[in-house]
Amino acid sequence: INSLKDVISLKFKTMQSDGILLHREGQNGDHMTMELTKGKLSLLINLGDTKTHPSNAQINITLGSLLDDQHWHSVLIEHFNNQVNFTVDKHTHHFHAKGEFSYLDLDYELSFGGIPVPGKSGTLSRRNFHGCFENIYYNGVNIIDLARRQKSQIYIVGNMSFSCLEPQVVPVTFLSSSSFLALQGTSGQDEVFVSFQFRTWNKEGLLLSSKLHQSSGGFLLYLSDGRVKISLHKTGRVLSDIATGN
User: Fold this and answer.
1) pLDDT digits (tens, 9 = 90+) for 17-40
2) How far apart are CA 222 and CA 209, in angstroms?
3) CA pair distance 65, 171, nearest whole angstrom
4) pTM of the entire predicted model
5) Which residue spans of the chain are classified as CATH 2.60.120.200?
6) Which one Pfam family would you cite for this protein (predicted)?
7) What are the φ and ψ backbone dihedral angles of 55, each rounded to 5 degrees?
8) Which of 47, 54, 63, 225 has its CA 20 to 30 A from that of 161?
9) Quick one: pLDDT band at residue 189, thresholds 50, 70, 90?
């Protein structure tokens, strides 16, 4: 579809940090890809023929962070001639493509969640999206409704259902100031990766502590006056004290 104005909007949620949300590609190597990479959303526009459009052959805009948190995130792409608005969760990046983007030659085909033909150019990670979409609209057309009604202009590849399964979450509550969980570390391991969500009315409290074997040190993650702080230390001295949040 070669239209003067394109408006694409959708909402997504996922626990995967990488995956292709949207892809369009033209005959001359022109393509537009929206891809989740390490929890951030990138919009890559490539004009393909660098000889014809050498000054602006590629545009790569990145918005958002930690978008793989299994919460709904909204995306809006508005393209009018060479003006593009890229919006993620109400944060908008406006850019002007110096005139050449108005010549972008794209196929009639637009794919969500992956690339129809493996190995096409223009992708960063080449991983298909694994998660949930809702409210996919292309120039006012409800794409999910067309797919659900099995309209001829839509085709489905792979396993897909018209529902969004919620992951099973098992919380834990500490009922007193002396309650905690302890996990024995692996001998010789000197790397730690931890992720969790928490909620509390208390402004103070120890969230996590760990000792690192080889460095004879460790770290403390704690709440202080409602802010999250981390203290890294070696025996006898504090290396750093970092605070974030409010």
Assistant:
1) 999 999 987 766 677 899 999 999
2) 8
3) 24
4) 0.64
5) 5-149
6) Laminin_G_2
7) -80, -20
8) 63
9) low
